[in-house]
Amino acid sequence: MLSRRQLLILQAIVDDYVQTAEPIGSRSMSKREDISFSPATIRNEMADLEEMGYIIKPHSSAGRIPSNKGYRLYVDHLLRPEPLQEHEILDMEKFFTRRISEVEAVMRKTAAVLSELTSYVSVVLGPEMEHTRLKQLQMLPLSGRQAIAILVTDSGHVENRTFDIPEQMNASDLEKVVNILNEQLVDTPIGQWEERLLTETRRLLHRHVRHYEDMFGVLRDAFKTQRSDQVFYGGMMNLMMQPEFQDVDRVRMIFEWLDRSENVHTLLSRTQEGLSVRIGRENDIEAFADLSMITATYSIDGSTVGSLGVIGPTRMEYERVIRLIRQFATGLSTSLTRKYRHDK
Amino acid sequence: MLSRRQLLILQAIVDDYVQTAEPIGSRSMSKREDISFSPATIRNEMADLEEMGYIIKPHSSAGRIPSNKGYRLYVDHLLRPEPLQEHEILDMEKFFTRRISEVEAVMRKTAAVLSELTSYVSVVLGPEMEHTRLKQLQMLPLSGRQAIAILVTDSGHVENRTFDIPEQMNASDLEKVVNILNEQLVDTPIGQWEERLLTETRRLLHRHVRHYEDMFGVLRDAFKTQRSDQVFYGGMMNLMMQPEFQDVDRVRMIFEWLDRSENVHTLLSRTQEGLSVRIGRENDIEAFADLSMITATYSIDGSTVGSLGVIGPTRMEYERVIRLIRQFATGLSTSLTRKYRHDK
DNA sequence: TGTTAGCACTCAAGATTAACGAGTGCTAAT
DNA sequence: ATTAGCACTCGTTAATCTTGAGTGCTAACA
């Protein structure tokens, strides 16, 4: 177990290093106001801390920097984030009540502001729609051969998509298609659509509708890509301001990884409920060797539907970011809950 | 006027430099197969070319690299791009006929593939909708207080947007609103909507509809953001592979500029019809000092509606990029034209 | 007269060395 | 248990040297 003094020293190392990005030496630390021991004492304690793996020397005659284990201890035991202040919650209220009705716009804005405030990279995962069920499907023929399909889910979410009606199909065919689809898909969770479409629905369409094959292709395309589980990014450029990312190749590798949104998607979606901090290699991702990620989940009516995160160097201002992410997660939750509850 | 030999040498310098990114010396050039003179002769010619401003020495004992003026000459007189091959056009046909009905998806894909093939940065500007006119406006009330507005333009483009119906409004109010909007806005070019909305339409709504103010706010929001003039990016990371962009700050500045899509939007939209090449400072943008941009416009039914471009170092493979961009521009044009003509 | 060989000169880049200093570990004194 | 003292380490910076690719100029040559 670590002594009170060792904890104090570790804390000082992390705090200083987060600010300066320079290794901390015993001499300079002894000058801090909250430290009252001599450099030699500090050196002894540091040697112990190093032996236990909480801090590291970049080279034998340098000061110490926190190891990942050190950051972990810091986050788990030395941070005692105060609950959100009244006014912080109010700020978020204000931010989210500006009635932007499109969910997509809210997400985009959230990512932008979150990265702006933290000055790290932010990622926001749109609300998960796997478990919502179809409530109503409408198709609206437009001029020419286009039509628009409108999907309303039981959570009040509306998705719409335009598509081309296959050449040989007439109005009554279309109507049949809509009827069959409604019959088949209403009350089916979105996650099961694909399977449903490919089996029963397909058989039914085959039996009752001419040229069903053409239609089927179109339908699959239209329904497959759920726009909802998009990933929104903010503040990529902030990464390039950090002194530890002055190497273009390094940055490029990270960006390339982030650029594949499926990467970020899986990373974010397997995050645990509530708030989580993953430091460096804890993410076991090659590109994340010296990056940390703080994530939080947001919910509608109490059930988790999505998550958002901040990605920065392991040398990150954990306390501040945790605070901000909390704010945004609760803000997003209340805002979405209000929106959807209101609509029911 | 430049002699045949001078042109040959200039061409050799550009070609070599584009490949290697290293200054070209007289010695190494004399070893090229297509060059038959001695280093000394080449030196003399180079001295003349330099005096005329076509090439530059990075420092007094280095080889030569093309100046912007040199690139300009190269592009204008030394490139004689052959017309597109049959099979190249066919490739594009194939690429664009995969029936992706959403225009947005086409644009996104175009940007991705264009950057992939060129290995530079690509930007694609969605089709301009300023001059299209509204053909039909529908509103479809959904469950709860949501409704969906569907706009069909005379070019066959469909845009739709969900919004919240203000609390105190009932079905007949909504119907009135739709009628008034249709009356007012059908056949009005999109560019004039905002003005129209703010003047006459507003008055009419005021006279005939209760609670018009709430509704009006919603309408403005919904109609203002035309999703159509979005900018789509591809291959940002490619920039970081170029040897001239190994400085993170430099890259960050460029990215920050590109990140503001309004920048790119104005840059692209004021591009001249057909194909254009702008080299380095010709773009008069601080961040573009050593970047070149090649743009082309695409059209629907012969009238220009948008543009796409490739951004890379001034040391760019102009010939190859011009070729590719031509391909994509014509491909996009025929594809969009087919789509919209078909729908009328 | 245009081309080329020869040669002195330039200058960026890389290697070598030296001085510096912030930092350490260890020992002995407090 | 703490701290002063001291020898030692090693990255950083600046100074110096070497190398080599490249130049411009002059004089010889076809």
UniProtKB/TrEMBL annotation, chains A, B:
Please give the Pfam families that the UniProt record associates with this protein.
Answer: HrcA
Cross-referenced InterPro entries: GAF-like_dom_sf, HrcA, HrcA_C, WH-like_DNA-bd_sf, WH_DNA-bd_sf, WHTH_transcript_rep_HrcA_IDD
* Keywords assigned by UniProt, alphabetized: Repressor, Stress response, Transcription, Transcription regulation
Q: Name one GO molecular function term.
A: DNA binding
Domain (Heat-inducible transcription repressor HrcA C-terminal) ranges: 104-322
A GO biological process of this protein is: negative regulation of DNA-templated transcription
Function of the molecule: Negative regulator of class I heat shock genes (grpE-dnaK-dnaJ and groELS operons). Prevents heat-shock induction of these operons.
Return the similarity comment: Belongs to the HrcA family.
Name by which UniProt lists this protein: Heat-inducible transcription repressor HrcA
Organism annotation:
Natribacillus halophilus
